[in-house]
Amino acid sequence: MDHKINPAFFVACQQCDALYDKPQLKQGQIAKCNHCGSTLIERKVDSIERSFHWSLAGLMLMLPAILLPLMGITLAGQFHQASLFDCILVLIDRGFFMIACLVFLFAIAVPIVRLAGALYISYCFKFNKLKPSLLNFFRAYHHLDNWAMLNVFMLGIVVSMYKLIDDTELSINLGLFAFVFWLICSTMSAAALDQDYIWDKLERAFPRNCANEHS
Amino acid sequence: MNTAKSNGLSLCPKCHKLNSLQAEPQQCSRCHGMFYQRKRNSLQYTLAWNVAALLAFIPANLYPIMIVYQFGIPSEANILSGIGEFIDLGLYPIAIIIFTASIIVPLIKIIGLFVLVYKAHTGIRLKPNRHSKIYHILEFLGPWSMLDVFVVALMVTVVELGFITSVAAGPAINYFTITVIFTMFAANSFDPRLLWDKAADKNTAKQAHLPSANLPDTLPATLPEEKG
């Protein structure tokens, strides 16, 4: 292990640690690991533009999706409807703090932070306002990768509709449509963001911040 | 196989930049995060989270998850009886979805991670290619078992007609969320590269034709990356 290799010219597979020469990819190309078949590097098409627009749309849909009622029920002449925000208030009111916290985190807070983060990063790239602080910002952004559960919540809505549909009169409200579009926007903005490209670009823009070691 | 580890390099888990490993923990030259070559004590952590998740899964199935009040009379339902209700009503697709999300997925995750830890530790019949795929599937499945929690949360909120009907969440819901979150932590703390390391070690041990007395000494030494 005494021979020095310049790590800048290599990539390693995240899954199996196999080492490869760094490929130069064009937009839309994917480099796969020969060994385990997982993706090494991916250059996404129009990544910055796409994630900018998707996350902007997502942030605009955020308020109606949270505040408008998702669905309502009618039973024995009484009507009641609830939004995502009501959901949390009612849960706190009834003393289920843990579920209230988790629903707030996974279905509201994390998606919003992720959308806002994607918007901020793609905004900085789109208008060429790169700052060194973006390095830290983007690193923090990665911590949230696994924890947005809008899709699961959507399935939860569908299942609870099935539960309610046979002994109550169920009505679907505008909030549900907003929520579906919000889900689509947040998924698309996360999928469109090209992390390798952003890291590469940041590294090239701030060589001084990234040069702890150049052997 | 030419790996980053054998060349003294290491991949930053956050920004995926290759760094030459000079110290452990190594600071990433790009994102300045600290990291280890392999996740630290990965198997132990995975095992611990897994056992905790399994323990929490027992009360999650025994206690009622949802309590429906109709005209003031409570009727309790736990996860399995909730599924039974759907089957009685003939709503098979929904019953299957809930059964998959709330029973099969957590169990498969817990059992699967036990198996992976076992394989990565002992290397018995280890096929890193297939097992790392299994790990991927387990990681993907993680959040979907939150389904039941969200359903109960929605039911509590929407069905609130005072005396006529209302729904309350039972104590099982807390245990169930704990199970789901712990299995997610367990999956996060597992490092699939250990599977490949182990397979490579086994190959070299085979090729070198080591005397069998030496073999047990070399095997455990590879497991946790240099401590301290």
Question: Keywords for this structure?
Answer:
heterodimer, A: 215 residues, alpha+beta, 2 domains, three-stranded antiparallel sheet, two-stranded antiparallel sheet, 7 helices, elongated, B: 228 residues, mainly alpha, Butyryl-CoA Dehydrogenase, subunit A, domain 3, 57% helix, disordered C terminus
Q: Brief description of this entry?
A:
The complex is a heterodimer of chains A (215) and B (228). With 215 residues, chain A is α+β, with helices and mostly antiparallel strands. Chain A has helices at residues 47-67, 84-93, 97-126, 133-142, 150-165, 174-192, 195-205, and strands at residues 10-12, 19-21, 30-32, 39-42, 69-75, 78-83, 169-172.
State the secondary-structure class of chain A.
alpha+beta
Mean pLDDT over all positions of chain A: 82
List the secondary-structure elements of chain A in sequence, H or E: EEEEHEEHHHHEHH
Major β-sheet annotation of chain A:
3 strands, antiparallel
Radius of gyration of chain B: 23 Å
Question: What percentage of amino acids of chain A are in beta strands?
Answer: 5-15%
Low-confidence stretches of chain B: 213-228
Number of H- or I-type helical stretches of chain B: 8
Task: Report strand order across the widest sheet of chain A.
Answer: 6-5-7
Can you list the strand order of the major beta sheet of chain B?
Answer: 6-5-7
Quaternary structure state of the chains depicted: heterodimer
What would the CATH topology of the largest domain in chain B be? Butyryl-CoA Dehydrogenase, subunit A, domain 3
**Helix-strand sequence of chain B:** EEEEHEEHHHHEHHH
The coarse silhouette of chain A is elongated
Distance between the termini of chain A: 14 Å
Count of beta strands of chain A? 7
Radius of gyration over C-alpha positions of chain A, nearest whole angstrom: 22 Å
**Using CB atoms under 8 Å apart, which protein chain pair has the greatest interface?**
A-B, 72 and 71 residues
- Fraction in beta strands of chain B: 5-15%
